[in-house]
Amino acid sequence: MPLRVALLPAAVTGILLTAPAGSARIMQLRATARKHRRADHRAVKAEAKDPSKARR
User: Fold this and answer.
1) Are 46 and 53 a contacting pair, CB within 8 Å?
2) What is the tens place of the pLDDT at every residue in 9-37?
3) Distances (CA, A) of 38 to 6, 12, 25, 28, 51
4) Residue 1: its pLDDT value, please?
5) Where are the beta strands (DSSP E) in the chain?
6) pLDDT tens digits for 43-52?
7) Helices (H), ranges, the chain
């Protein structure tokens, strides 16, 4: 079997194995970022209501 023919399925298999793991990691990072954005937003709202609770 020529090298080019053997490399094609290997490359496709690598992509198929890597894509789901990468997608899962991106979703995990987005969820974490969303959680931190919400926490920051709540902290800013709380600070606006009561300036004595300002973060240092």
Assistant:
1) yes
2) 999 999 999 999 999 999 999 999 999 99
3) 49, 39, 20, 16, 19
4) 76
5) none
6) 888 888 877 7
7) 3-49
State the Cα–Cα distance between residues 5 and 17, nearest whole angstrom: 19
CA dihedral 51, 53, 55, 56 (to 10 degrees): 90
Identity of the amino acid at 24: A
Contacts of 43 (CB under 8 A, 6+ apart): 55
List of long-range contacts for 10-18, beta carbons under 8 Å, 24+ apart: none
